[in-house]
Every structure is written in structure tokens, then in C-alpha cells.
Amino acid sequence: MAEDSERPAPQTVVVERGGFGTVLIGLLLLIAVLIGAWFLLSENHNDAKNTDAITTAADKVGASAEKIANKVAP
């Protein structure tokens, strides 16, 4: 039992590291955010194109239906 009281108290060693790894992670995070922003902006632009195409197609169907209706009903 005397041996237990003679042991030194445990010590905690904190090693702080930084540098290239931290910078690399920051750059990768920045690149990921930029790619995400580009994707969202690009998708929004594509949605506008799809909406215009659908509107044009619907107008053409409406015009065709009107022509048919005019031919059927004198």
C-alpha cells in the first residue's frame, strides 16, 4: 500500500498542432461551398428555361385546340 502513495500524479499533455492540415481543410471547405453555390444558381437558371419551354408548349397546344374547335363548329 505504501507504493500507491508514492506514485506521482498523472499529467495531461496537450499538443496543439496547426498549419498545413488546417489550411487544407479550410480550402476544401471553401471549394465545396463554391461548388454548392454554383450548382444552386445553375439549377435555378435551368428551371427558368424549363418553365419557358413548358409555357411555349402549352400555348401551342392551346392554339391547336382552338383551330380544331373552329373547324368542328362552323
Tell me about this structure.
This protein has helices at 2-6, 20-72. The chain is an all-alpha fold and 74 residues long.
Largest sheet: none
**Alpha-carbon distance between the two ends:** 115 Å
Query: What is the string of SSEs from the N terminus onward?
Result: HH
Helical residue percent?
over 70%
Strand content: under 5%
Rounded average pLDDT: 81
Global morphology: rod-shaped
Can you tag this structure with a few keywords?
74 residues; mainly alpha; 78% helix; rod-shaped
Topology:
Blueprint (H helix, E strand, L loop, with lengths): L1 H5 L13 H53 L2
Task: Give a concise summary.
The protein has 74 residues and is mainly alpha-helical. It has helices spanning 2-6, 20-72.
